[in-house]
Amino acid sequence: MIGCDEIIQTIEMLQNEHLDVRAVNMGVDLFDCADRDVEKCCRLAREKIVRCASPLIAACDTVSRKYGIPIVNKRVAVSPMADVMGGHGKDELLRIAHALDEAARESGIDFIGGYSALVQKGMTVSDRALIESLPEALSRTTKICASINAATTKAGINVEALLLLGHVWKKTAELTKDADGFGCCKLSVFANMPEDNPFMSGAYKGTGEPDTVINIGVSGPGVVKRAIERVRQNSPGCDLGRIAEEIKSTAFRVTRCGELIGREVAKLVGAEFGIVDLSLAPTPEVGDSVGEIFEAMGIPAVGGPGSTAALAMLNDAVKKGGSFASSSVGGLSGAFIPVAEDSALAAAVERGYLSLEKLEAMTSVCSVGLDMIALPGDTSAETLTAIAMDELAIGVVNAKTTSVRLIPVPGKKAGDKAVFGGLFGESPILAVRGGASDDFVRMGGRIPAPLTSLNN
Q1: Which of 9, 59, 151, 451 has the highest count of CB atoms within 10 angstroms of its CB?
Q2: What is the mean pLDDT of residues 224-230?
Q3: May I ask the CATH class of domain 22-191?
Q4: What is the pLDDT of residue 143?
Q5: SS3 sequence, the chain?
C-alpha cells in the first residue's frame, strides 16, 4: 500500500521538481499502405497517420488536466520506411518523407519518427536509397526524425553503411548550416535499436507490435536530484547504498505515474498500451539536468573521477525501481547524457572536464550513447564513421543499446558554441582527433558478431 508520505512526495515532484511525461508516442503500422504506385502509398500513409494520430492531442490534454502532470511532447512513430517502401528509389523515398511531414503537421504532433532502415547485416536497394535521401529529407522537412540500426550483437557492425552515413552527416550539416547543422540533430545511428523506444530521434514502430500502440516516456532528472539531496540532508553520513535505494524508490513512483498516464491515453485513442520508458532525459532548463544529479551525489564536475561509477549506479537503480513498479517497462529506461540538451553537461564540456573520450567511457554504462555531440565542421566523414564504430562496438560487445547523434557544425571549431534551440539546447564544440583511422575505416565490409552472440 502507498503511504501518505509517498503521496506527498509525488505531489511535490509535480509541483516543484520538473516531473513530467516527456513523450507520448503512438506507433502506427504502415505496412498496409505499401504499394508500387508511390502516389497511392503516400496518400494511404498520410490518411492513416491523420486518422490514428489526430485524437492523440486531445487525449493527452484530457489526461494531463485530470492528473496535473504535464505531457511535453506528442509524437508518432511509423514502420521502418525503407521496408514499407521496398523496391523504391531515392526520389520515391523523398516523396514519402514529405507525405509523413504533412501528416504530422495536419495531426498536430511534434515529431514523427520511423524514417528508418535496419541495415546491421546488409543493405537492400531501398535501405541504401533511404540513407542517401537523408540529407534532403532532414533539411527540407520540419517534423521528420530518422534512425538507422547499423549494428547488433547477433550480426556485428555494418561498416559499409556507416561509411555512407559519415558522408550523410557532412551533407546534412552543410544543408542546414544556417542552423549550426541542426538537421543532424534529427538522426540517430544505433546498435541494438529497441522497437518500442518512445524518444526521438530513435523511435520507430517495431514489426512485432500491434497496429497502433502507445509507448510513453517519463522523465524527471530534477526529481532524482532532489531525492538525493533530501536523503543526504536528512541522513548525514549516509553511504552510496542508501543513495541507490532512494533513487530506486523515486524511480518506482515515477514509473507508476507514467504507466497510469499511458494506459489512460491508450484507452482514449483506442490503441493498445505498450511500454513505459523511465529514462532520465534532461532538458536545457536548469534543475532538469542529469549532470546536476552527479553534483548532488558529490561529484562537483561531471567527467571528473568517479563519474562513470556514479552513472553506472544511477542507471542500475533507475532500472531496478522501474522494473519493480511495472511489468511493462521497456524502451531504453535509464540515464541519457545528451550534451547539448543538458545545461550541466554542456557546462562541463566548456570547463574542460568532459571530453569525447570521457563521454565514450561513460556510455559503456548508460542507456544510450554519444548523444547530441557537436563536433568541428571540418571533421571528415571517415572520422565521423570511426567515432560511430567505436560507440556501436560498445553496444555490440556488451549486448546493450548504444547510439550516436553527431553534429559536425559547419564553419565552427573546437571551443566555439553550437546553438540548436528549444529542447535541443546548445553546447561547446568538442575537440576530436581526426585522420588517424582513415585507412582502417575505408576498408569497409562488416565487423563480425562477437563470440557472445552464440548463445542460443
Answers
A1: 151
A2: 87
A3: alpha beta
A4: 95
A5: CCCHHHHHHHHHHHHHCCCCEEEEEEEECCHHHCCCCHHHHHHHHHHHHHHHHHHHHHHHHHHHHHHCCCEEEEEEEECCHHHHCCCCCHHHHHHHHHHHHHHHHHHCCCEEEEEEEECCCCCCHHHHHHHHHHHHHHHHCCCEEEEEEEEECCCEEEHHHHHHHHHHHHHHHHHCHHHCCHHHHHEEEEECCCCCCCCCCCCCCCCCCCCEEEEEEECCHHHHHHHHHHHHHHCCCCCHHHHHHHHHHHHHHHHHHHHHHHHHHHHHHCCEEEEEEEEECCCCCCCCCHHHHHHHHCCCCCCCCCHHHHHHHHHHHHHHHHHHHCCCECCCCEECCEHHHCHHHHHHHHCCCCCHHHHHHHHCCCCCCEEEEEEECCCCHHHHHHHHHHHHHHHHHHCCCEEEEEEEECCCCCCCEEECCHHHCEEECCCCCCCCCHHHHHCCCEECCCHHHCCC
